[in-house]
Amino acid sequence: MKFNPSIKKIKAFVGSQDSGLLMKNGSSKDSSLFSLMQVSDQKSIQFAGDEIEDVITRQDSEGNDFLQLNFLCGKKILLTQNLIGFKPIEIPGMESSSLPKVVTTPDLLSIIEILEEQQPADVDYDDTKHLRQVYISILAGAKEAGFTIENEMYWLSQNYDLAGTA
């Protein structure tokens, strides 16, 4: 197997700081697989080293370094000190301007907390609909990024029918 310098760059970034990310080699059967896990919510993604096209070091508006991982399939993820960022997927009927450009899986928990804290008398249908659409957009983006999101889909199915009523 040919060594991929992108993997070395990712390992150096994750291991260089008090990171909230963990990187592991895959199974003993396939050493080309890697896993990146967020400590905050235990969510992880797996990928093969040869799926990575490029790794770019960038800085956010506060001067903090992060990595942008570009995959051969066109997928992109961002690695910050603690989180894996990805693009939410725009869903039909939703204005793209109402979505952040980059989200993380902990954003799902934030939306759940907001929706569960609403008192029935205070529920605004439009706000609830918008939050549900954002939640679905983040779920779709998380799935496309490679996260396992069955529990979050289950929560949605138990609390809202996907046709739009609470």
Notes on the protein architecture:
- The chain has 166 residues and is an alpha+beta fold.
- 33% of the residues lie in helices and 22% in strands.
- It has 2 domains: 5-85, PH-domain like (Roll), CATH 2.30.29; 96-159.
- The protein has a 4-stranded antiparallel beta sheet with strand order 4-5-6-7, with helices on one face.
- Strand 6 (76-79) and strand 7 (84-85) form a beta hairpin.
- Helix 2 runs antiparallel to helix 3.
Write the topology of this structure.
Elements: H1 5-15, E1 21-25, E2 33-38, E3 44-48, E4 52-59, E5 65-71, E6 76-79, E7 84-85, H2 106-117, H3 125-145, H4 150-159
Antiparallel strand pairs: 1-2, 2-3, 4-5, 5-6, 6-7
